[in-house]
Structures are given as C-alpha cells and as structure tokens.
C-alpha cells in the first residue's frame, strides 16, 4: 500500500460563508480580478454580495465578466490583459467550472509570457511561482475545480480542448457556500451533478485509485445517487444543495489525487469539436455504453457501484451486479432528464472517426481498467450515436 495525497487548498465549507471572502483573501493583496460569466438575474444578488464583502475589506475589485462555457484561449487572454492592466495581485473565480478554470488560466497568463495554451500539461514550460494566487467560489456542484490543480481550456482554431495541470493551480482558498447553488436551474443541476458523479466513479475504477480515494469517491457516489435527483426536483432545498456541494468537493479531492478515465477523454474531445455540448451532457451520452463494454475488467468495483445505485443487487453475484451497472446508469441518467444521443447533441456522423481519434489524444483512456483501441472507440461512438 504505497500512495501520495496532496490537498493544499484551504476549504471553507458551509451556508453563509461567502461573507468571509474578504477576510481570507485579503492576505493575498489589496487588488483582485473577479472572474465570472456575464451577469444574469439569478446570480446578480450573489455578485453584489461578494463585491460588497470585498469592498468592506478594502480590496479593490476589477470585474472580468467574459467567461463562456468551454472557455477559450481568447477569453483567457482578454481576462489576463485586464488583470495586468489593473495590477491584480490575486484572482477570484466565482461561478461554475468554466469561471474557476478561466480564473486559473488567467492567473498563469497574466504572470507569464505567451498564452495559457503554452503551459498545457505536456509542455516543457510550466507555470512558475509567479502564478497569481487563486480564490475559488463555486456556484454549481459539479466540476470540483475549486480543489483541483486543473484548468480546462479550448482552442477554437484547432477544435481542441486540453488542460493545464500543475500544483500551482490549486486554489489557495475555496469558499463553498451551498446558498450560492440555490438558484441553479434543474437541467444545469443535473448536468453538473452528473459530472461530479463521473469524477468520483472514474477516480474509483482507475488502477491509480488509492485506499484514501476509495473512501472519498464511494461516499461521493452515495451522496449523489441519493441527493442529486432530489436537488433536480427541488432546486431551492438547502439540505440537498449542501449535500451536493459536499459531494462535488469530495469528487474534486478524488480526481486531484487519482485520475479520470476513458469517458472523460471522449467528453473532452467532444466539447473541443462541438463547444455547444456541455461537458456533463457529453458524459451522459457515452457513459452507459462504455460501462457495458468494460465492466469485465473491474468486476468488483463495478459491482460495488451498481449496489450503491440499486441496493437490491446486494445479494447478486459480483459478475451479475457489474454487468447490470450500465442499465442502472441509463435509468439514472434518464431520471435526471439528460439522456440524449450523440445525434441529438448535434454530433456529425461523418466526423465520428475524427472524434474517436481526438478521444485518444489526452492520456485519460490509459487510466481506464481496460485500455481501448481506436477501432473500439469508433464502435462505442457508433453505439452512442
């Protein structure tokens, strides 16, 4: 039993903790760049609240509100220019995974030469200690980005989605206030929650999983199976939001020290080629087929998850429970209202071979219990079409 575990982020968890942002972030400087999506009615009260809290702590705030879903290199560069112009000493990512990932990438580009794309995980040149401190405040429960060292960005010209991966991208502080999730609509609640499910699932089934991650990931899966459908139906229930915020944090802690697998490699490629497809929706489209194809290579773990999803399988043999996991997942996805085929998502059938090749660019597929070939990915995508 040999493993490592690292989590340098100071996590402040609980309802109402947004009011502590000024106090905990002030140690990083007196000037910050606040990174968000464009304002909309549901988030406006929270935006006013955070600006007020920072002002009371005498922190100067410059607001960059240009974040988009599947944020691009161009978006990051715009934010980095503003950060340099205003002399930001730290960056606050406020919102979903796109906002927090953008804030991380801005923290790198604003303090280094070139663009964030020059610092992807496989480059020789990596972010240095000059990276601006990052404070993460999630308003969704899905990506776990507030406790990871990853920032995902899209290169529109290359139709490619990739990631920065470096310990310097761990947020210094994460303020997880479930009250901020109360206005998230049902569909986005389902998509982000399913993404958290996938993070925990893949962290658990990969050979890179450690005994520490097993504890975190399984608890996350139990919480999501029980509370995500409830949160989708009753979006303003604080208890459900609190449980999902904790599950999301557990999932983030898991992937930060384990790995994602084949489904994430495919979903990343899909969003790179088709930016209009939300990450959680891409995962939902391919998950059941992948599980049915690969359950034989991690029977005990697949059976364990199947029993979490359906306790009546407790008395069934591991092989049977593992084999039925694909069906359980399909029902779960359908119950959440996010069951869609690749055709329904706008994927072009003639581009499936290209999508399959792109799915094997990132190393995620190598972390799967069974390492697929290009031809096998093409077959899986055809089944999902």
List keywords for this structure.
Rossmann fold; 385 residues; 13 helices; Dehydroquinate synthase-like, alpha domain; alpha/beta; 2 domains; 6-stranded parallel sheet
Structural class: alpha/beta
Q: Within the CATH hierarchy, at the fold level, what is the topology of the largest domain?
A: Dehydroquinate synthase-like, alpha domain
Number of domains: 2
Total number of helices: 13
User: Tell me about the biggest sheet?
Assistant: 6 strands, parallel
Q: What order do the helices and strands follow?
A: EHEHEHEHEEEEHHHHHHHHH
Q: What is the CATH H-level superfamily of the largest domain?
A: Dehydroquinate synthase-like - alpha domain
Strand content: 5-15%
């Amino acid at each position: 039993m040999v493993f490592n575990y690292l989590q340098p982020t100071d996590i402040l968890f609980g309802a109402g903790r947004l009011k502590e942002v000024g106090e905990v972030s002030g140690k990083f400087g007196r000037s910050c760049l606040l990174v968000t999506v464009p304002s909309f009615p549901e988030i406006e009260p929270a935006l006013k609240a955070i600006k007020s809290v920072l002002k009371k702590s005498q922190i100067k705030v410059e607001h960059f509100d240009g974040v988009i879903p599947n944020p691009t290199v161009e978006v990051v560069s715009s934010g980095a220019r503003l950060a340099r112009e205003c002399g930001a000493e730290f960056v606050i990512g406020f919102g979903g995974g796109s906002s927090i990932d953008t804030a991380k990438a801005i923290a790198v580009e604003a303090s280094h030469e070139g663009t964030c794309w020059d610092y992807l995980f496989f480059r020789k040149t990596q972010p240095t200690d000059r990276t601006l401190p990052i404070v993460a405040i999630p308003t969704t429960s899905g990506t776990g980005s507030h406790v990871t060292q990853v920032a995902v960005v899209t290169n529109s010209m290359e139709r490619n989605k990739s990631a920065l991966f470096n310990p310097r991208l761990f947020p210094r502080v994460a303020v997880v206030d479930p009250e901020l999730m109360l206005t998230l609509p049902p569909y986005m609640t389902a998509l982000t929650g399913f993404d958290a499910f996938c993070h925990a699932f893949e962290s658990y089934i990969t050979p890179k999983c450690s005994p520490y991650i097993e504890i975190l990931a399984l608890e996350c899966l139990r919480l999501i199976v029980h509370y995500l459908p409830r949160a989708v139906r009753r979006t303003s229930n604080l208890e459900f939001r609190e449980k999902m915020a904790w599950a999301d944090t557990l999932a983030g802690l898991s992937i930060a020290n384990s790995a994602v697998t084949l489904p994430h490699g495919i979903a990343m490629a899909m969003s790179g080629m088709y930016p209009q497809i939300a990450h959680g929706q891409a995962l939902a489209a391919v998950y059941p087929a992948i599980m049915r194809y690969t359950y034989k290579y991690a029977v005990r773990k697949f059976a364990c998850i199947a029993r979490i999803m359906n306790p009546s399988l407790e008395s069934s043999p591991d092989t049977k429970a593992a084999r039925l996991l694909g069906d359980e997942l399909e029902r779960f996805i359908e119950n959440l209202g996010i069951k869609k085929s690749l055709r329904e998502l706008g994927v072009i059938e003639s581009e499936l071979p290209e999508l399959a090749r792109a799915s094997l660019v990132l190393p995620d597929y190598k972390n799967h219990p069974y390492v697929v070939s290009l031809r096998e990915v093409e077959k899986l995508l055809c089944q999902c079409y």
